[in-house]
């Protein structure tokens, strides 16, 4: 078995067996490729890979740290290494257990939402900054899906015209193939409908709904770039990213009285602990308001 076959099997397992996102698949396959490349004798079969010890993994991580990656990236690299080694052991007929190797401690930062006014101004500025009316409508529709419906950017860009015509709710397939039902506000539906009415490209039901300037699928990087321009124009911090709109959706709903279980379902979180972080965000926001407004704060 050659390296390409090993990586192809790993890619197939992540994509179809684990249903990981394309971004995760690329990162995990790249980690496996680096591990194989650092071995003096390139592994030719699963048994050889499975025999790699903790020292080999530490060497791999040390090399990555020397290349300048930070704590978070190192933790992700270790997670990918453990998953790959567990897969290799399973392929070699051994118990598919990940090697015991402690990674760097990563302090979890709180999501940084933006205010409702900032979200509104961002979408308006993105529209005003666009080169053509249909592109303005497209960008505003995507951003409103993030802020008004809590979608991840990948989920928004994976939508197809098969969802049309839009109704009050929509079934979204998120991470791990998990499906959830989301509510669509009239302003979100109107924004998508306006984009569809102005789009200069045919929109077959099985192809991406949102298109780039040349008619191909719209890339997430383009949405990040237009939002970066808008936040610069508005003087907002670098934390005002497309994903921050999803954080804002969650924080503002929680502040309006939504319960955690409902919020978990709307966001598509597999674990309630992922949703609970927004209770800290909301508390931090309230404390900030208190310190600003209270005369004895």
What do you see in this structure?
The chain has 2 domains: 3-91; 116-244, Intergrase catalytic core (hpI Integrase, Chain A). Helix content is 60%, strand content 3%. The chain is built from 13 helices and 2 strands. The protein has helices spanning 3-17, 22-37, 46-50, 54-66, 71-91, 116-129, 133-149, 153-157, 186-198, 220-234, 242-255, 260-267, 272-293, and strands at residues 169-173, 179-183. The protein has a two-stranded antiparallel ribbon with strand order 1-2. The longest helix is centred in the C-terminal third of the chain and has 22 residues, at 272-293. The protein is elongated and about 60 Å long. The chain starts with a helix and ends with a helix.
SSE order and pairing:
Layout (H helix, E strand, L loop, with lengths): L2 H15 L4 H16 L8 H5 L3 H13 L4 H21 L24 H14 L3 H17 L3 H5 L11 E5 L5 E5 L2 H13 L21 H15 L7 H14 L4 H8 L4 H22 L4
Antiparallel strand pairs: 1-2
